[in-house]
From TrEMBL:
Cofactor entry: heme
Binding-site positions, heme: 517
Family membership: Belongs to the cytochrome P450 family.
Originating organism: Phlebiopsis gigantea (strain 11061_1 CR5-6)
Taxonomic placement: Eukaryota, Fungi, Dikarya, Basidiomycota, Agaricomycotina
Protein name in UniProt: Cytochrome P450 monooxygenase pc-3
Oxidoreductase keyword on record: yes
Keywords in alphabetical order: Heme, Iron, Metal-binding, Monooxygenase, Oxidoreductase
Length: 594
């Protein structure tokens, strides 16, 4: 697999080379003058002028670039989006504040603040690099759907993620993306996505694990538990090689005896999960840093070591699948590519298209990233909301008990009919969407809708435009004055027709347009199934604050702050996907009817 960040040093050297090119050219010119003409600048003038030319050159260049962009915008009858102005040279203070707030503040808080003051689409001009940010549903609609062909994930995003994702459906564009998408799509048919037997086995494992730990008197990290559930389900569903992470000992909480906590040995599957998460964290940092990320990896790649662990886990599974396909190819009953066999895994399906280990590796990792952490993160947030809203939990249980009863396994039709369950999942995805931020790049100079219908905004080719569904999902002008409140009924009552039905692009947890999430129905089924099983078994959930690692607890200073920051009792963070900092430590009460 190519490792672009191993070329970080080369990239930086070439960037520096480009940066000092005017000085080198000036020095060369002066030396030529000295040698071949009667003009003899003094020796000190060569380095002096070579250095002095740099600020002048860049001042002129920056001015010219701004003028040029203005001209291009004017030619298209457009205006420039408002710019966020900092106080320090190069808007360094904005970079500092964004970086710091990412570490210490509530999710997207700083950007949310900017959107309130400057507007819902604006320009970030940091170190003379233009980037744009939006939470405007009309802009997002254009990017994802109506003007789809103009917007790509692009080579800048690809450069950031390639050392983790390789080339797959998630980070490719154009024909390559079509190839990956068409290769994967047949797998997500209704029959495949409603194979509940597999979820059932893993959900049962998760419940018994949780029961045992709770019975021993300790809180459970639900985020860890459900990540194991989705890891076991995904590895079985995708390549029929379940890693059985649920068989390993669960972590003990912060308030358990130290000896107990120290004794939890880490299994290979956990190393895989941790390494995978760490690699995504590194990638997210790169995406946030934009063009300058290679400068942070001059001393070495931040993903390479993690990916070695991931690959050590994955490669034997891939080899076995290719070998299995090789053996089966000789058999007469070989199916056509499009037909998906009853027990066929994604990997079985992919090896019909290719035996190239890199393509298989990348595609499988893409689907793992796309599908596993998103579902685990959403279930974590769902249980968090249950802990804060016992009334919602009670209503959900009522629906579950009346439709499915206390023990039976839910069917596809049961799940389809559980309207409150769907509304509950949607409300979770609204306030804490699994993919809170995303980015696209226009392939050419383009226009986006502005606040003035007569004058769109201009976006230059190849500039990054980050869009936040997280911020969009909380806008009061889109969702009403109670937008910050957790209330699943907004997906069922008159508010649905007032807000969402006329403007469906205000709710995009799965994206929209041709690149809409391939696993959306699969995810709804998996999450619904798990929640039904969970609430058949338990009838109360409470956070266990003392069990939470102290450094990861919600800062007391947040209490009473405006918006959700003031009411949140766990710390939502995002790498590529959303998670709760330090886990989600809970206690649950077993239902009497279970
Ligand atoms: C709560 C669960 C999920 C959420 C919120 C979610 C959300 C998303 C989002 C926002 C995207 C668009 C990413 C982008 O274009 O930048 C996406 C793409 C994708 N998702 Fe999901 N996803 C979920 C579950 C799943 C599952 C379970 C699978 C598969 C098993 C899956 C497979 C995919 C794939 C393959 C893509 C790439 C589509 C493309 O680029 O053409 N997702 N998902």
């Amino acid at each position: 697999m190519p490792l672009p960040e191993s070329q970080a040093v080369l990239l930086v050297v070439s960037q520096l080379g480009r940066l000092v090119r005017p000085s080198l050219l000036t020095a060369a010119l002066l030396l030529l003058l000295r040698r071949y003409t009667a003009v003899h600048p003094p020796t000190w003038a060569v380095p002096g002028l070579a250095l002095a030319v740099l600020p002048v050159y860049y001042a002129v260049r920056i001015r010219f670039a701004s003028w040029h962009i203005q001209r291009r915008a004017a030619r298209l009858g457009a205006a420039l989006p408002p710019r966020l102005e900092g106080r320090k040279f190069g808007n360094w203070d904005i970079l500092q504040s964004l970086t710091e707030s990412f570490e210490t503040d509530y999710l997207s808080e700083t950007l949310f603040g900017y959107m309130h003051t400057i507007g819902h689409s604006f320009e970030l001009y940091i170190l003379w690099d233009r980037a744009y940010v939006t939470d405007d549903a009309n802009v997002v609609k254009a990017m994802l759907a109506t003007d789809f062909n103009t917007w790509v994930k692009g080579d800048r995003f690809d450069g950031c993620v390639r050392s983790v994702l390789g080339t797959g459906v998630f980070n490719s564009d154009g024909d390559m993306w079509k190839f990956h998408r068409s290769m994967t799509r047949p797998f997500f048919t209704r029959e495949r996505i409603s194979h509940f037997e597999l979820f059932n086995r893993h959900a049962d494992d998760a419940m018994s694990k949780m029961r045992a730990r709770l019975a021993a008197g300790y809180a459970v990290d639900f985020q860890d538990l459900v990540s194991r559930f989705t890891l076991d389900s995904a590895t079985e569903f995708l390549f029929d090689a379940c890693v059985h992470s649920l068989a390993n000992v669960l972590p003990y909480p912060h308030d358990a005896p130290a000896a107990l906590r120290a004794n939890v040995s880490r299994a290979a599957s956990e190393d895989f999960a941790r390494a995978f998460a760490a690699a995504q964290e590194a990638v997210n940092f790169r995406v946030r840093m934009g063009n300058i990320w290679p400068y942070f990896e001059l001393l070495g790649s931040k993903t390479q070591a993690h990916m070695r662990v991931v690959d050590a886990f994955l490669d034997p599974i891939l080899k076995a699948a290719v070998e299995k396909a090789r053996v089966e190819k000789t058999m007469p009953s070989q199916q056509s590519k499009e037909e998906i066999g009853e027990d066929e895994t994604l990997l079985d399906h992919l090896v019909k298209y290719t035996s190239d280990p890199t393509v298989l590796h990348d595609e499988v990792l893409n689907i793992m990233i796309a599908g596993r952490d998103t579902t685990a993160g959403t279930l974590t947030m769902a249980v968090y909301f249950l802990s804060q809203h016992p009334d919602v939990l009670r209503r959900l249980r009522e629906e579950i008990l009346s439709k499915v009863g206390p023990e039976r396994r839910p069917t596809y039709n049961d799940i389809r009919e559980m309207k409150f369950l769907r509304a509950f999942i949607n409300e979770t995805l609204r306030l804490l969407p699994a993919v809170p931020w995303n980015v696209r790049y226009p392939v050419k100079d383009t226009l986006i809708p502005s606040s003035d219908p007569e004058k769109p905004w201009f976006i230059p080719a190849r500039a990054s435009v980050s869009y936040s569904v997280h911020c969009m999902h909380r806008r009061k002008d889109y969702w009403g004055p109670d937008a910050d409140a957790f209330d699943p009924d907004r997906f069922l009552d008159a508010r649905l027709h007032t807000y969402l039905t006329p403007n469906p692009f205000i709710f995009l947890p799965f994206n929209a347009g041709p690149r809409i999430c391939l696993g959306q129905q699969f995810a709804y089924n998996e999450m619904s199934f798990f929640l039904v099983r969970l609430l058949q078994a338990f009838d109360a959930v409470a956070l266990a604050p003392a069990a939470h690692p102290p450094a990861d607890r919600v800062p007391p200073a947040w209490r009473g702050a405006p918006g959700r920051k003031g009411v949140e009792r766990m710390w939502p963070k995002a790498h590529l996907t959303l998670y709760s900092k330090g886990g989600l430590w809970v206690r649950m009460t077993e239902a009497q009817n279970a």
